Amino acid sequence: MRSFLTRLSPALLIVLLLVSTVVPNVQAQYGGSCQPTYTGACSTDSDCCSGWCSFGTCADPGGGGGSFNITGTVFVDTNRNKVWDSGETAYTGANAVLNFVGYSNTTTTAANGTYSFNGITGGNYQIQLVPPTGYGVTTLNPYTVSPTSSVANFGIAESYTISGHAYYDDNGNQQQDCVGSCNNGTGDEKNFQGITFKRTGTAANSIATSSANGNFTFYDLLPRSYTVTMTVPPNYSVTTANNPKTVTLGPNATINYGLRQTSCIPGGATLSGTVYVDGSNGACGSSLTTIGSGATVTVRTSSGGAVTATGSTNSSGQYTINDNTACGQKSVSLSNVALNYTSAKCVRLDGGAWTSTGLTGFTYNPLNFSSNHTLDWYLSSSVPWFQTGDGDVRFGNLVDSLPSASAVSSNANSAFFSSAFIPTFGAGNPVGFVISNEYSYNADPETKNGLFSYSFFINRAKVKSVTVTNLVGTPGVTNCTGATCDISNLPTGIYKYDGDLTLTSYTHLDGAHVLLLVNGNLLIKTTGNIKVAAGRKNLFIIAAKKDINIDPSVGAAAPAAPCGTNACTNLEGIYTAEGSINLQGTKCSDNVTPDKQFTLAGSFVTNALKPLKVGGAGIFNNNRSLCGGDQTYPVFVTQSRYDFVPQLTDFYKIPAVRWKEVNP
Predict the structure, then answer these.
(1) What angle do CA 652, 656, 659 make, to 5 degrees?
(2) Cα gap 176→169, rounded to integer Å
(3) Exposed, middle or buried by CB within 10 Å (0-12, 13-18, 19+), for 135?
(4) Closest alpha carbon to 553 in 588, 501, 598, 500
(5) E-strand spans in 87-134?
(6) Whether 310 contacts 261, CB under 8 Å
(7) Among 232, 358, 359, 453, which is disulfide-ready with 609 (CB 3.0 to 4.6 Å)?
(8) In this model, does residue 361 exceed pLDDT 70?
(9) In the chain, what is the straight-line distance between the N-terminal and C-terminal CA atoms, in Å?
(10) What backbone phi and psi angles, to 5 degrees, belong to 202?
(11) DSSP character for 642?
């Protein structure tokens, strides 16, 4: 028998059922005397004077009780008060099934919601209403009828659902984080199958279990309040703070649950492995040389998150650490490695293949700490470096960028850095470099504006009454759609573009002095190289109000430099930015694909407005690497263009003014 609400076919079934066996004329005592047919209470057949016990009442369909009709009505009990009130409609087309021992019959409710079973042999019967999909029964169900009580009316009302979803909330952020469609793919927080949920109310349909996709549903519920309680598995906690959860139906309700493992395995999860180093620029795993002792392995709740475990390598480069905190997705990082190892080239998880997937610098993320793992590291010893026309500048033990707001030149012994403030050398010790604040003897120059900045050139043009021509519409400037322009053979002059500009090509007119001012950011994305012929009184300057960005496409595959004068340069001229100059690339992020080598003939000036001021923001920022080619070739090459210096007219200079006291 089904009680209350059942989710079956749309048809409405009424079932009459008598579960008993015929034992006629049994004389037995029930409370001191046998019980009469049709009215006497009973618990077994022997309690009845004749007939048998049917649903708690003595019955004898063959004992002279005659026949009778069973009737009733099915109605939509809108207010759910179990009474057919005025305005409530009948339910048409429902099936009614009458069951007796070894007997079953079916009828259908008429247009007015009524049904009947006629000429039924006397006895006790049960009628059960099976509600249509989306409805529940508001009245007594099942219903017992007899010759003395043969009317069974049923009220039905629209029902609702409580549904939800259970998932592994590994990072505890109360939401399911997925790379794809949350279908248990790589990188997804997985769906949690097999979780039991229990709701308050009648016993039928009061328990549900999450399926393979983590979903569960309670069907056919009346519009009232229910409390749903999840049975939390051992070693897990609920991150969504909603267990138990009370909801009021009308409309349907949804409850989602996140669970996070509170302990991995007895004693915690163990992470072990070996740190190898690449001494020959080979493929991952090609060298079995280990790093030795002192490298630190750190486990965090997430990349840059709280530390949950830490350990160090021994003299054989091996480490073992134990993490007995909450399980789930975590990150693992490596630090305190030798200065010539700049990043992890690849890792090997649980003895599998070497891979760079999930690896950024010295951090591997994520790693699920619900079980023990091994994680081997393979470190790269190559580092991007720069080359000047006078010699190499190798930064094997320095941060991969030029020191902030610094200029670089060379002398007979070593590279010389000159800066208004202390350069940033990271954790390295700049052996063989001369570090000096050449302006410390006189702070006055630090307050002066730079003479090669966008702002200086704009002001200088006003002072000198030099015409500044709008770049757009100038002959030789084509394809200037939006903020993208091709420029060819501009005559001598000053040209200005307001806003961010993308320069897709530039051809210099021999003998021309061109100053291009960009009142915004400049992206150099030329299809060819920018060439300014030497020895022909040429001058080409670009000055940007903000940053200059050099697209990854500008350059050539190494080894393109060094080479003969102007033979393999990518940009020629003087490039000045009041912000930063950024050499864009991927920095060999996949440990496979190298960036293009870049060669400049001329000068880069960053932080141009206040080049000598302490705390200037503009820097030269290298984002390129030749991957394994960094072992042999520079990623950035600069060549001198002394022929530009004589072309710098008085427009680009401010005379020094000296004051002398003269006696009156």
Answers:
(1) 160
(2) 6
(3) buried
(4) 598
(5) 95-100, 103-108, 114-121, 125-130
(6) no
(7) 453
(8) yes
(9) 124
(10) -65, 160
(11) G
Q: 3-class secondary structure for 573-633?
A: EEEEECCCEEECCCCCCCCCCCCCEEEEEEEEECCCCCCCCCCCCCCEEECCCCHHHHHCC
* DSSP structural state of residue 180: S
Residue 209 per-residue DSSP state: E
- Residue 460 three-state SS: helix
Which pair of structure tokens corresponds to residue 662?
Answer: 């003269």
AA identity, residue 37 = T
**Rounded distance, CA 56 to CA 331, Å?**
68
Q: Nearest 5°: phi and psi at 254?
A: -130, 135
Q: Which among 544, 513, 541, 651 is positioned nearest to 608, based on CA atoms?
A: 544
The predicted structure's pLDDT at residue 236 = 81
Contacts of 649 (CB under 8 A, 6+ apart): 513
| Gap between the Cα atoms of 421 and 648, Å rounded | 28
**Spatial CA neighbour of 277 closest among 394, 376, 385, 399:** 376
List, for residues 140-165, the tens digit of each pLDDT value. 878 888 788 889 999 988 888 899 99
Quick one: 354 exposed, middle or buried, by C-beta within 10 A (0-12, 13-18, 19+)?
A: middle
**Identity of residue 523:** L
Is the torsion defined by CA of 261, 262, 268, 272 positive or negative? Answer: positive
Residues across the chain: 664
Q: Residues near 48 by Cβ (< 8 Å), separated by ≥ 6?
A: 26, 28, 30, 34, 35, 37, 40, 42, 58, 59, 60
Specify the 3-state DSSP secondary structure of 75. strand
Whether the pTM exceeds 0.85: the reply is: no
**Distance (Å, whole) CA 367 – CA 373:** 9
Residue 486 token pair: 């091709």
For residue 95, the one-letter residue type is N
Parallel/antiparallel/unpaired status of strands 513-519 and 539-544: parallel
Quick one: how far is CA 493 from the chain centroid? 51
Distance CA 555, CA 540 (A): 19
CB-count exposure of residue 260 (10 Å: 0-12, 13-18, 19+): buried
d(CA 55, CA 115) in angstroms, rounded, equals 22
What's the rounded Cα separation, in Å, for the pair 315 and 61?
95
pLDDT at residue 255, rounded to an integer: 93
Residue 565 amino acid letter: T
Name, in order, each residue with C-beta under 8 angstroms of 115's C-beta and a sequence gap of 6 or more. 14, 71, 72, 73, 74, 94, 96, 107, 108, 109
Torsion sign, CA atoms 168, 174, 178, 183: positive
State how far the Cα of 493 lies from the Cα of 470, in Å rounded to an integer: 11
pLDDT of residue 33: 67
> Token pair of 509, please?
């007119």
